[in-house]
Amino acid sequence: QCARCDHCETLSFWQGLDEVINRYVDQFTLQDLLNECKEQEEAAGQADTAL
């Protein structure tokens, strides 16, 4: 925590941004990310063989 947070005029902005980021990140699991990566790799492989 910043020593100047009691007098920070932008603190509410940063707190709000932190909340938005956390809500977004909380929507995903590591498995979700791995699945997406695998799907992209498979799609790229199919595109390579289509040529």
Keywords, separated by commas or semicolons:
single chain, 51 residues, mainly alpha, Rrf2 family transcriptional regulator, WH-like_DNA-bd_sf
Mean of all residue-level pLDDT scores: 91
In whole angstroms, the N-to-C terminal distance is 55 Å
Query: Biggest β-sheet: count, sense, barrel?
Result: none
Radius of gyration of CA atoms, rounded to a whole number: 20 Å
Describe the model:
- With 51 residues, this protein is mainly alpha-helical.
- Helices cover 71% and strands 0% of the residues.
- The protein contains 2 helices and no strands.
- The radius of gyration is 20 Å and the shape is rod-shaped.
- The mean pLDDT is 91.
- It comes from Candidatus Faecivivens stercoravium.
- InterPro entries: WH-like_DNA-bd_sf.
Offer a concise description of the structure:
This protein has helices at 11-25, 30-50. With 51 residues, it is mainly α.
Task: Map the helices and strands.
Elements: H1 11-25, H2 30-50
